[in-house]
Specification:
The protein has helices at residues 3-18, 23-34, 41-59, 61-91, 104-125, 127-133, 138-156, 169-181, 189-199, 204-232, 237-266, 270-290. The two termini are 22 Å apart. By secondary structure, the chain is mostly helical. The chain contains 12 helices and no strands.
Amino acid sequence: MTILESILLGVVQGITEFLPVSSSGHLAIIQNLFHIETNGSMLFDIMLHLGTLVAVFIVYRRDIWKMIVEFFCMCGDIFSNLRTFILNRIHKTSLRYKRVIRNNYRKFVVLILVSTVPTGVLGVLGKDLIEKASATMLIPGICLLITGVLLLIADLTKEGRKMPKNVSYLDGIIIGTAQGLATLPGLSRSGTTIATCLLCGLDRKFAVKYSFILSIPAILGAAVLEIKDVIAEPIEAGQIGIYAVGMVFSAVVGYVCIKTMLLVVRNKKFSYFSYYCFAVGVVAIVGHFLL
């Protein structure tokens, strides 16, 4: 793979990871269409996703920091309650327990953990299917059509009001399941999860935040699971620098696209992306049978 191809794929990843048009679908289509050989595709794919992950951390750094702090505070309260439980049993007392989930950030942390479970299960079970689906333009094309339908539904969804304290854990499971299904190439992760968040009644701005922060454990988890396979891949030393260039471009472009996505959701402009998904999906399906 050349440095220009790395930059191209990095830009595509940065744009399509956060705009609701499917990064995996576009990467699969472009690699098949232009016959781009990444010579260690798994490592390159991980680096591109880590690049977009950096963008999420930068945009939501304050929220993420508060969530990390509250997570450890919750752990402290849980151990404190365990100690209280033991003392109450031993001394026959009625010491009060601390309320563990007592603010929006703590509830948000638990919701992300709840949503991550079905995402992880579906990701592991569907790993082989996803690899086979990415080797053709047919599946990404069909999934892009599905993404287009989801985006139209998102624009037609009534304005939601739910913030973390109002979101149920069932909502979290549904959103996490949607993200797990969106590992299929062509089915936009951001588009699918944001549409699902809106259908569950979440506030539009919070729906975007939920979707992008939810991507953090999903991307990190996928990277950890693929480390063994990455180590076994034969990769030329010179290619790593080229991969790094693509990673930087995916981070910079991803940052810009997160900001853009906030405006898109707020102003209900999903329909423009749905038409694009329909067009690219049709082109991919036709290309599959002609090329």
